[in-house]
Amino acid sequence: MLCWHLLIYLLLGGTAFAVDLVPEYAEAREGSDAELPCSLQRADSLDKVSMVVWHKGNEETALYKYDMKGTSGQHWADPSVGDRYFLRLLDGERALLTISFTKLSDEAIYHCRVDFNRSPTRYTHVNLTVVGEWNSLISSGCFIVTIKDFVPEGTEQTLWLTSLATDKS
């Protein structure tokens, strides 16, 4: 639904940065922290951020909000995520949403919406991949595979598999 809002906004004459449509990529190991970037870059250098809102997938309900309208920022997270989500402002142009103790169910495309006082709304889309333990990913009645160490993409490794057969009759 969020993408439709952007499309309608653009069709009605709104302006958006071209980079808004290019997704960012983030990766985390299951159980570790994931960091999702969000651009706070504004059209008017004197403008200020008023609100940062994060959505997961096509859900219309926000997972996380950071309201900067008052004298100090107010953090809010959906009760379903508890205190696992937290936004950090790195500088005037970047922020990171940290997801602690990532789960396989956290894997999705996230959308960061930044509202400004005067500048057009800005969107950042982040594709989060969560790499899980193989024993939770590949298991059946025939075999279970366990890989202890995380292997980054592009790294050449040799994988030795040993099978243990049992008679279930």
From TrEMBL:
What keywords were assigned to this record? Answer: Signal
Q: Which domain of life is it from?
A: Eukaryota
Secretion signal span:
1-18
Q: Name one Pfam family in it.
A: V-set
Q: Cite the Ig-like domain residue spans from the record.
A: 17-129
Keyword Signal among UniProt keywords: yes
User: Is Signal found in the keyword set?
Assistant: yes
Identify this protein by name: Ig-like domain-containing protein
Q: Which residues form a coiled coil?
A: none
Q: Which InterPro entries match?
A: Ig-like_dom (IPR007110), Ig-like_dom_sf (IPR036179), Ig-like_fold (IPR013783), Ig_sub (IPR003599), Ig_V-set (IPR013106)
